[in-house]
Sequence to fold (587 residues):
Amino acid sequence: MGSILIVAEIQKGAIREATYELVSFARRVAEATDREVKSVVAGKGIGTQAEELSKRGGGEVFAIDGDTLEHYTVDAFQHAVQAAVEAASPDLVLFSNTPTGWDLAPRVAAALEAGFASDCFDLLVEDGKLVFLRRVFNGKLDARLVARGTPVVASMQPGATAAFEGTADGKVTALDAAPPADSLRVKFVETRVAEAKGVDLTKASIIVSGGRGVGAPEKFEEVIKPLAEALGGAMGASRPVVDAGWLPHEYQVGSSGQVVAPKLYVACGISGAIQHLVGMKGSNFIIAINKDPDAPIFEVADVGVVADLFEVVPALTQAVKEAKGAA
Amino acid sequence: MKIMVCLKQVPHQDARLDINAEGTWIKEDGIKFEINSYDQYALEEALRIKDAGEAEVVVVSIGPDRVTQSLRTALGMGADRAVHVKDPAIEGSDALGIARTLAAVAKEEGPDLILTGLMSDDVNTAAVPPMLAQLADMPHTTAAVKVEQHDGAMRVERELEGGALEVVDLPRPCLISVQTGLNQVRYASLKGIMAAKKKSIDVKTAADLGVADQVGPAAAKIAVEKIYTPPKGEGAEILSGSTEEVVQKLVAKIKELGLL
Ligand SMILES: Cc1cc2nc3c(=O)[nH]c(=O)nc-3n(C[C@H](O)[C@H](O)[C@H](O)COP(=O)(O)OP(=O)(O)OC[C@H]3O[C@@H](n4cnc5c(N)ncnc54)[C@H](O)[C@@H]3O)c2cc1C
Ligand SMILES: Nc1ncnc2c1ncn2[C@@H]1O[C@H](COP(=O)(O)O)[C@@H](O)[C@H]1O
Fold:
């Protein structure tokens, strides 16, 4: 009987929610293909976390504890994960597509000469075969991938399935596989949280955001900001806008910006890539204005307008002002 | 310092994406291509290191004839040399096949630093850089938002989630994949473009690099079976009518929400 190895992640001292999503995927595959679920937890002083995972569906949990695993570095964690791979000889190794996952998973795949399915939103078993579903072209198209042979390494998109909530007894197996300090090349220096300055979008009840479709920095002043002001809301942006220097970083909404949940979110010229969506899909009401009828933003929006934003947004600004004047 | 920059040419971000007859990829004829957005930042970072001191910048791209144009652009921006790996046998490779090919180039070039994009805008896998680092036996890091030299090593700020950053030191030779926004990308100047005409593009095949049996569909461990338009969920209520009508409907919605 083959096995599936889950690479667990610890965040703020606890097993990360995304790891339990991997448990859900792994148990689904395990059941359909008669495989065993196993996991690996690496870190410093991670006994209780390994215990917790073993009781919540992680199966046999390889706990790899050591000083060199106190902080994530690719060298140390690759060493640990590969030791667990050796112990479990899995057909499938699952990572979460987080900063740790995207740093480590492809490297482990290359070391194993394995196929790698990146950032999948679903994992299916069809006639005993593994099928991976993922987005391509920034969410505009989907792809269906099949593996040729084993092992396969896959990373799963956080939030793609519900976390496993049940209990299922496994066990913890300590694995003496922390790498010696002198074998490590990459040095962890520190982690920092970029200080929040200026606008705190998380407090705004209305946000009008512009994307790459706005086209130029002055258009934010001319088109996006007036609507935000007319509505008494704040202005936001997608990442390319910030990357291009059109607006400062604090305006960025998304996985690497702010996560917002206003009463109203108006997305103008934003396609709706997953990294933007995770930052705003919790909004109470979403209006999307985009000239492409197939833009993924329309999947999460409540109301959509398929049109040129330069026509609709100024007209909307005017109408809002009139409505306010009349009230 | 010798810097190798991996450039991929991808469909232009505003290109129309039609699926090919086999349903396995998009139709490539008739659309515009450009240098992958992330890779433009990687190239710019290499050129900044060169501007600040001494460095040779070699750009490498795997792809068909059309890639020449992107390599010319990179040379025009200031890269010193280009390597174009052109071989129909490489088409249909998985990320591992691409990484093996780039690793073979790295072996010939012996760079002190490899700069790549975090991911490509078409396949979105973010797989090639860590794979290449593994095969070239170099340490690596991903999603760099700041790259500096520090005590003979590269000091990199990498992006985590929600505004958090991680600082790591990597001894050279090493590989760094960069996130967008790391710098402001320059344009090729007219002078640069003229100078680029004299710069060379080495064309290589998989056999030249000794990887002929490690690339292409036969060597791929994972394959795209099909691509398709994502199934539509319930989706948004799409408002129709003239701009005037649509705007009035939006105002009505906003009123319903009690926000006007
Ligand atoms: C690790 C990582 C973290 C990331 N973090 C974030 C993040 O925090 N936030 C974020 O936003 N992105 C983030 N991204 C980037 C993300 O993947 C997308 O590239 C980005 O969200 C796209 O921005 P966009 O929608 O503005 O641009 P595009 O995808 O280029 O979309 C522009 C849209 O504008 C429309 N348009 C053009 N002209 C008009 C017009 N005149 N009228 C109406 N519509 C028009 C087009 O149809 C298109 O849909 C991240 C990516 C990675 C890999
Ligand atoms: N065909 C290619 N030629 C050169 N570099 C590539 C190629 N494919 C991928 N890369 C590099 O690897 C990075 C990540 O790509 P990917 O793993 O395809 O998402 C890109 O940003 C490039 O720097």
The longest helix of chain B spans residues 37-52. Chain B touches chain A through 81 residues (CB under 8 Å). The mean pLDDT of chain B is 96. Residues 9 and 224 of chain B are 19 Å apart (CA to CA).
